[in-house]
Design brief:
The structure is a single chain. By secondary structure, the chain is of the alpha+beta class. It is 51% helix and 19% strand.
């Protein structure tokens, strides 16, 4: 009961359906009750009129005193449905009704009235004749009541048949009227994290629009706040590039001076730190641009050419570690979208592969077309990613501890953002040998064209 109550109070559709159904049920019950009572009254009146009509017809025939007719109706074979006509002489009070006699009071007025016998209750109509005799038309009340009730119940049956139909229609109508609201909710659920555009509430009922307007205003405020944060990060990273470049040049100039070995070592450490900071700033700039919602020109380029551009920047790092790079791309594998997104996504995946693959390892870049899906794979022969770390690999600045490699922790966060912006899916799988040993990491990106 508590669960049903929570469901009713928590759902507008359930509340509307419940209360409208309750109103229909109450109206149908009330209408059925009054219809039954009215039909029952009309049926009794109709049968009373029949007694009057029979009496009028018999009076026209000038019946003689002592007349007794017990077969008036068409269903005379059924004694229970017979109408009995009797003419009582002046002063006679003995009324013969089938298998019982009933005493009739001499002071009874003309008209329809009930009469109780020893076995049955009767409905009689009395008419005084000019000669002082009395014409009495009688019928058992249980037969009359059965016919009246049957007629009255037939008026209630349409209400009983319409109630479930109306309740079903009410539920369908309520569900249809609230369908735009549900569609709006589904649209919000399917949105990407970076999509803060206003909701389209043109098909939403007028009563719901103030709520959607408030949501749109909130989305606009959130978008402005996030844009300010992105601009701040981008501007800060851009402003820091010049001082870092100057410091790097100063460090290079100091290295040209003959210094003690200990000082040369400190200067080398300083230069490496500056290089890492410059790499971090570059990643921050890429991250800020990948989160932009402004539309950029769409390009169509073969993935083979994307691989070439990426490897032009990364080959020095791969050669420094003697990593064998293999490219396998079909000419039909075409990327359609923002060229920057494709370059940065593949570059960050390949850079991570080179960074974490041991010296003498291998890097594979593959691309193929499967119908309307472009499949890109980046595989390495590194240690892979521990399974318990998989849930956090897309967190910004999160790095797996104990790998001994330097990095900003933004690479996979950028990959995730770019994949979401291009409606692409990512799959990270640790490859293993037949013996169960780690054989590297395989990353599959699927672009839906």
């Amino acid at each position: 009961m508590d669960g049903f109550k929570r469901k009713i109070t928590g759902s507008l559709q359930a509340q509307l359906s419940f209360w409208l159904s309750a109103v229909i049920l109450a109206a149908a019950v009330g209408g059925g009750f009054f219809s039954f009572r009215g039909a029952l009254h009309e049926a009794n009146e109709f049968q009373d009129d029949q007694l009057r009509q029979i009496a009028g017809l018999m009076q026209q025939q000038a019946p003689h005193t002592g007349l007794l007719i017990t077969q008036v109706t068409e269903q005379s074979e059924d004694p229970e449905s017979q109408v009995i006509v009797q003419v009582l002489a002046p002063g006679e009070n003995r009324l013969r009704l089938l298998d019982e006699d009933v005493s009739l009071s001499p002071g009874l007025p003309e008209g329809v009235q009930p009469l109780s016998g020893q076995r049955y209750t009767w409905r009689i109509f009395i008419r005084h004749l000019p000669d002082g005799a009395r014409l009495v038309v009688s019928q058992r009340t249980d037969v009359r009541d059965e016919l009246a009730n049957s007629s009255a119940w037939r008026t209630v049956f349409p209400f009983a048949a319409l109630i479930p139909v109306l309740i079903l229609l009410i539920n369908v109508v309520v569900r249809t009227m609230l369908k735009p609201v549900k569609q709006l909710s589904n649209e919000l659920d399917k949105r990407r994290d970076i999509d803060l555009s206003a909701l389209d509430d043109r098909d939403v009922p007028v009563e719901i629009r103030p709520f959607t307007a408030s949501i749109n205003a909130l989305l606009l405020r959130v978008k402005r706040s996030m844009d300010m944060q992105k601009r701040f990060v981008a501007d800060a990273a851009h402003e820091l590039r010049s001082p870092l470049t100057a410091l790097t040049l100063q460090a290079d100039n100091i290295r040209k001076i003959e210094l003690p070995a200990a000082a040369q070592e400190r200067v080398l450490d300083l230069r490496h730190g500056l290089q890492r900071m410059r790499a971090l700033l570059e990643q921050l700039l890429v991250m800020a641009r990948s989160q932009e919602t402004v539309a950029h020109p769409v390009s169509t380029i073969a993935m083979e050419d994307v691989f070439k551009q990426v490897l032009e920047d990364l080959m020095p790092s791969a050669e420094a570690k003697s990593i064998d790079v293999e490219v396998d791309s079909e000419r039909s594998a075409i990327f359609t979208g923002q060229l920057f997104d494709a370059l940065m996504l593949i570059k960050n995946l390949a850079d991570n592969a080179i960074r974490y693959t041991p010296a003498g390892g291998r890097l594979f870049l593959r691309a193929r077309q499967e119908g309307r899906v472009l499949v890109v794979q980046v595989e390495d022969s590194g240690p892979g990613i521990p399974e318990h770390e998989m849930e956090r690999i897309f967190d910004p600045f999160y790095r797996i501890l104990g790998n001994g490699e330097s990095g900003s922790g933004l690479g996979l966060a950028i990959v995730k953002t770019l994949a979401d912006r291009n409606n692409a899916s990512l799959a990270f799988v640790n490859r293993k040998t037949d013996s169960g040993a780690h054989a590297g990491l395989s990353v599959t990106v699927k672009f839906r064209l």
